[in-house]
Design goal:
235 residues; alpha/beta; Rossmann fold; eight-stranded mixed sheet; two-stranded antiparallel sheet; 24% strand; binds ligand PMT
Length: 235
């Protein structure tokens, strides 16, 4: 399979030195990329700003903002069998991003925000026979909210992690996840290293792919998207 994986945070710039972002380090997404490669799949890893080495064998596309990430996923999707959105995409961006550093003495004390497009929802009409896998980073009642997002975003699998735990979710090496499906019982995995979680996810995706009998894309059908237009932009 060709698997497109997003990882890490996005940054939504206020000016060249300030941004809105979140605590994602990319560890979960990079572990999935390494696992998918070990399982013999072709991997495109679309990474927000993280400081992790590229798993050997992955094609990596670096992006900054949610709009950049949407462009990159849209570009890679036509040749993909599976999209795994493990990135923590910022939901909002400043309405205006200054190209010069704002001065504390003159900048407004409030920032007007615009909603970012939801990447999974935006690309839902192009899903066709592809598998779409999402992640849900939740506190409170993780499963109820994850189930709601699974349905709303039309996903084949949702990985729910309870990010209120110190040993799960953002920035740690372990994760505690529940796998949710549209028409099958939830699977609760024990606390595992992120690489072990990744192996479990890739195994489930292989099973789903076989069940759906989706044609495996040949690598020659890849859409040679030009990554040069995916560089950081401030607005
Ligand atoms: O990177 P690490 O430090 O290892 O941390 C891993 C993680 C906690 C970031 C990861 O396990 C995780 O939970 N990622 C998803 C976090 C998140 O943004 O969840 P959400 O509930 O806001 O979004 C639900 C799904 O929609 C996600 O698949 C997300 O990628 C996607 N989404 C969200 C916003 C948006 N604008 N477009 C999207 O496609």
């Amino acid at each position: 399979m060709k698997i497109v994986i997003t990882a890490g945070p996005t940054r939504e710039h206020i000016d060249p030195v300030r941004f809105i972002s979140n605590r994602s380090t990319g560890k979960m997404g990079f572990a999935i990329a390494a696992s998918a490669i070990a399982h013999g799949h072709q991997v495109t890893l679309i990474a927000g700003p993280v400081s992790l080495a590229t798993p050997e064998g992955a094609l990596r596309i670096d992006v900054i903002s949610a709009l950049d990430m949407l462009d990159a996923v849209r570009c890679e999707l036509p040749s993909a069998d599976v999209l795994i959105m493990s990135a923590a995409v910022a939901d909002w961006r400043p309405k205006e991003a200054s190209t010069t550093k704002l001065k504390k003495s003159t900048m407004a004390p409030t920032i007007e925000l615009l909603p970012n497009p939801d990447i999974l929802l935006t690309l839902k009409p192009s899903k066709e026979n592809r598998l779409f896998v999402g992640f849900a980073a939740e506190t409170g009642d993780p499963l109820a909210e994850a189930k709601r997002k699974l349905t709303a975003k039309g996903l084949d699998m949702m990985v729910a992690n309870d990010v209120s735990r110190p040993d799960a979710g953002f920035a740690v090496d372990t994760n505690l996840v529940t796998l949710l499906y549209p028409n099958a019982p939830a699977e609760h995995l024990p606390l595992l290293d992120k690489r072990q979680v990744a192996d479990e996810i890739i195994t489930r995706i292989e099973k789903l792919h076989n069940e759906l009998n989706i044609m495996i894309s040949s690598s020659s059908s890849r859409n040679p998207c030009n990554a040069s237009n995916l560089t950081a932009r401030l607005s």
